[in-house]
Amino acid sequence: MEHMSQCSEFSMIASTLELGDNVSTIPAMNRTMVLLTRVDLRTLTIQAQQGALKILCASLPRLPGHVNDVRCVVAFISLLTSPYTDVVCACANALLSLSPFLLGFACAMAKAYRNFLAQTPPLHINNVITVLDRLRQLGSTIKADPDVDNVSICVLRALSIRDHVLQQKILDLALDILNPRNVENIVQLVCNEMDMAVTTIEYRAMLQKAIDGCYMKYLMG
Question: 4, 91, 93, 94: which is closest to 47 by C-alpha?
């Protein structure tokens, strides 16, 4: 019953934001902030989650200061890790449309998403691939951010997931955000991963290729 009322409230807020009235936008966004502290969006119905995403997409460009609000980051990441594939895909696509308008948004999402990758129960692999692909599309935006060094380290720590498809996606993303400042840290982390006893022949070959790619890209850059 509570979820139904929240779904209705999200719908009302979304309607308010669609009016384009900046006077009503601020209180509507403030009300959203209150709602986001009360519930894990992943537990809501698909309709409520879609409503919440619509609100975030409509309000964040108008009030860009909220991108650094931990509640917004948690809310967006919750939707990226939704059990509903439609919500994940819509949210992943929203990353592309929002990032050009919100300084630091892509970096914040990349760092926060890594923390959810190893959760139990595990995220659906196809949904994870979708999100990682979108983050790769934002590689140049992430690379230009002053916090890119921390992001690259966070991304590589997700290699703890023992799935070769995801590990390759993670390595590809790390190479996309490679720069002269972080290349040594990235190579060191990948070398440390190679030294672990649990690595398979296939995984070691993948890691070696990534190391070679780091050196080639660094020398060419």
Answer: 4
- How far apart are alpha carbons 127 and 92 in whole angstroms? 9
Closest by CA to 185, choosing from 153, 214, 211, 210, is: 153
Highest mean pLDDT pick, 12-21, 166-175, 180-189: 166-175
pLDDT recorded at residue 159? 85
CA distances from 157 to 37, 190, 208, 220 (A): 28, 10, 17, 26
SS3 category, 29: helix
Model confidence at 1, pLDDT cuts 50, 70, 90, reads: very low
- Specify whether the CB–CB gap between 169 and 133 falls below 8 A: yes
